[in-house]
Amino acid sequence: MNYPAPPPPKKSGFPIWLLVILITIPAIIAIIGVLAVMGIYGTRKYIANAKTAEARNTLGQLAKDAVAAYESDGKLCPSASSPIPAVVPHAAKYQSSPGEWEADKPANAGFACLKFSMDYPQYYQYDYKSTPTGFTVTAHGDLNGDGVVSTFEIDGQVIGGVVSIAPTIKETSPEE
């Protein structure tokens, strides 16, 4: 009598393909997480640098305008009566009006004397102060809204009848 062959013995143990999946998936997730963190850090740094470029460029333009005003009149423009805007913007842009930049026009002082205005939204508060022998242009901002204000400042001095602008902008907490 022929008896049927016994079934093959069942393999015991963990399937290798499942082990590969359980190791590979967490490794891929970890790599994606590291790349995401690096991307977020790089993007934040890039955005902060782009926002601080507004202050640097505007201060440079204001200093050039002060030199041009001195060269045409032989004297520095008087100080602005108030900064624009009156309060430092906190983590938001401020849209100034043309009238704010011309507030000192009757006295031919400040930004009106410099013939400067901004018609696009700004992250910073700008101020212009002068003495008979020099001027200081300042930008204050709070990019991340934490209450810590960043300050950018450039100075100019009249030396021998010529206005000399400082070669660098003084920066205090620039990415705040």
What does this protein structure show overall?
With 176 residues, the protein is α+β, with helices and mostly antiparallel strands. Helices cover 38% and strands 19% of the residues. It has helices at 16-73, 98-101, 110-114, and strands spanning 124-131, 134-141, 150-159, 162-165, 170-172. Strands 1, 2, 3, 4 and 5 form a 5-stranded antiparallel beta sheet that branches. It is rod-shaped and about 125 Å long. It starts with 15 loop residues before the first helix and ends with a strand. The relative contact order is 0.15.
**Count of DSSP E strands?**
5
Overall SS class: alpha+beta
Which shape, going by the Cα principal axes?
Answer: rod-shaped
Distance between the termini: 92 Å
Our Rg estimate from Cα atoms comes to 31 Å
Strand residue content: 15-25%
Unreliable stretches (pLDDT < 50, length at least 5) are none
Q: Write down the oligomeric state.
A: single chain
Structure summarized in a few sentences:
With 176 residues, this protein is of the alpha+beta class. 38% of the residues lie in helices and 19% in strands. The protein contains 3 helices and 5 strands; from the N terminus they run αααβββββ.
